[in-house]
Amino acid sequence: ADLTNLGLLKNHCNQNILIVGDGDLSYSLSLCRCLLNDYNVRVYCTTLDSRGKLLENYSRCAQIVECLESLRNVCVLHGIDGTNNGLIKEYMKKDKVQYFDRIVWNFPHLCGKSRIHKHRKLLLDFFKSSVEIIEPSEGQVWVALTKGQGGTPREPEYENLVKGNTWQIQYKAAQAGLIMTDVFNTDDSILKLHATGFRDGLGYSPRGFHNGDHTLNSKGGLCHVFSLPDMMKHSVYRLVWKYDLAYMVNPETFSFSFMGDVISILLQDPGIEFTISDVDVYQRPGVATLDKTSTIIFSSSTNAHLKYKGRDNNRFLIELKTALDNLALMSMEDYNFNCNITGQ
Ligand SMILES: C[S@@+](CC[C@H](N)C(=O)[O-])C[C@H]1O[C@@H](n2cnc3c(N)ncnc32)[C@H](O)[C@@H]1O
Question: Where's the 25S rRNA (uridine-N(3))-methyltransferase BMT5-like domain (predicted)?
Fold first, then answer.
């Protein structure tokens, strides 16, 4: 599977592909040239820019659009925002398309100079919009990023990467409920796609951060593939979440194994593992209770941990406190657990 075939199967019928934010549409044309003879696909090639703006900005675009529009089962659309599926849903309805089998966005970028947190939000909004329109069991969302941007352990210089400077793609996808099932270097795919234009020069050249013919340096880029989780799918790298808790307990009745049992009951998912460890324990003079700060680290390769993420990040901790309090009331009179949420 690579960017020339999107891992599609030749003998499947009626597969729908949505290409998002495709600069001068050269990826769309190259992909169509790779797929259309052998695969039964309908391809929606989209840009955020209007057609007028595209023709103004990209010198090859008029030719590319003409070629695309001469192809069967290809639809060229403009003004499509990858973070808001409202408009594309209207086209889906009109064409009786229920879901997309693939949604692809190569080198998403807010044009101009932008902060990292805005790009994280761009990815998150794109993933949230995409999960509503991908086929739930086999559908995939593909995102290519330049070297170092994604911040997964697959980055060639991961050890030296300042994690706070990356777009944290795996975690943005997880927030929308997706797990990363594949990740690969894009160099070979881009060469092959570029070569589809050997006759007319219309092959894929990734376009730059600024609008216009400026080429983007894609060398060493990675394509990240995401799916909705089920027990058959595993993410390439485990997702890890860390919670710090500050709380007060009666040392005679409290134990980590008790807390662990409560957490397991709350999670109801053997696919999520966790460890609990003390960061700090303090015994105030003259008081029977202990002040503790502990870290719980959750990890999973099958669960995007959605249950406790999303709108209310602290819901899990509140549920944990309530469960411990309730259990304590039933079994231990002098049990006391005050959970102060100090972070995540
Ligand atoms: C670095 S360029 C890459 C263009 C193209 N995908 C390629 O590989 O050549 C980033 C593209 O993202 C588009 N873009 C930015 N925000 C977008 C959004 N919210 N929805 C769709 N496209 C967007 C821009 O218009 C631009 O074409």
Answer: 18-185
- Cα(343) to ligand 1 centroid in Å equals 34
CATH number, residue 125:
3.40.50.150
Distance from the CA of 97 to the center of ligand 1, in angstroms? 24
Is residue 284 domain-shared with residue 206, that is, in the same domain?
Answer: no
pLDDT in tens, 219-239: 999 999 999 988 789 999 988
Q: Which domain holds residue 103?
A: 15-227
Taking the mean position of all CA atoms in its chain, how far away is CA 271? 19
Ligand 1 site, residue 21, Cβ cutoff 6 A: yes
Number of independent structural domains in the chain: 2
User: Which of 107, 202, 213, 222 has the most ligand 1 atoms within 8 A of CB, as the residue to mutate?
Assistant: 107
Contact indicator for 80, 50 with CB cutoff of 8 Å: no
Tell me if ipTM is over 0.90.
yes
State if residue 87 touches ligand 1 by the CB under 6 angstroms criterion: no
Ligand 1: nearest atom to the Cα of 216: 1
Residue range 9-25: mean pLDDT, rounded: 91
pLDDT digits (tens, 9 = 90+) for 20-43: 999 999 999 999 999 988 889 999
Mean of all residue pLDDT scores within the chain: 86
**DSSP string of 91-129, one letter each residue:** HHHHTT---BSEEEEES---SSS--HHHHHHHHHHHHHH
Ligand 1 closest atom vs CA 109: 10
At 275 the three-state DSSP class reads strand
